[in-house]
UniProtKB/TrEMBL annotation:
Site feature Important for substrate specificity, where: 167, 222
PANTHER family named in the record: S-METHYL-5'-THIOADENOSINE PHOSPHORYLASE
Binding-site positions, substrate: 185, 209-211
Family of the protein in this entry: Belongs to the PNP/MTAP phosphorylase family. MTAP subfamily.
One Pfam family matching this protein: PNP_UDP_1
The encoding gene: mtnP
GO molecular function terms noted in the UniProt entry: S-methyl-5-thioadenosine phosphorylase activity
Domain annotation Nucleoside phosphorylase: ranges: 9-224
Protein's recorded name: S-methyl-5'-thioadenosine phosphorylase
Assigned keywords, A-Z: Glycosyltransferase, Purine salvage, Transferase
Amino acid sequence: MSSHARPALAVIGGSGFYDFFDNEATHVEVETPYGAPSAPVAIGEVQGRPVAFLPRHGKSHEFAPHTLPYQANMWALRSLGVRRVFAPCAVGSLRGDWGPGTVAVPDQLVDRTSGRPQTYFDGGGVHVSFADPYCDELRTATIKSADDVLPMKGAGTMVVVQGPRFSTRAESRWFAGQGWDLVNMTGHPEAVLARELEMCYAAVALVTDLDAGLEEGTGVHAVDVFAEFKRNLVPFKDLIRRSVAAVTETDTCDRCRVHTGVSLPFALP
């Protein structure tokens, strides 16, 4: 791949979001110290600039949330030149007024996962600032790119659960009682790994369901989640494309550069 084609921007597609480019794309096999990523990285163009795309769960949804090669995925993107990442994902809503079809751009994250490798720094005394887990510049680009097709919420707290099961009603009510807005299964450790690699990162969340604690009946079912995501996929992809095009700077912003003055145990790719 020639140097001028190195993509500084990337999109990581979530459940039901397995491709991104309408025009021709090049697929790149990447090996990392953490194994292979979920799929070959597609490199195409959005308004004339190179952009990388990686389907988070694989091209055919091979990976469950708790088995995803998160470390390999983020390392692969960074090694290709990526410095800014949009991360569209499906989420459940913990608020009755944020119904299916709502898009939220969260500004906070709560980790309720367990057993997932969640750092590149197992030694060396490296501690990473993560008080604000998402890049404000990318969040702003998405919020400004919204139209009236999908209702937009410009903030919110996303709690990430282990999966692959959905929450019990009691868990869901507890999450909502904490003041959290969204529930998801893949947002951690993806966001913190991006920060460790000094890549700007923003989740863009499409609500597919009201979580179990907010409605009576049989609870959340995967078939309904996928159907709702598919119903909104065309305008959701359009929002992501407009968000990518709205980014003027392609290098890591100052707030997402967390290793200034720190000696790392290895060089970032």
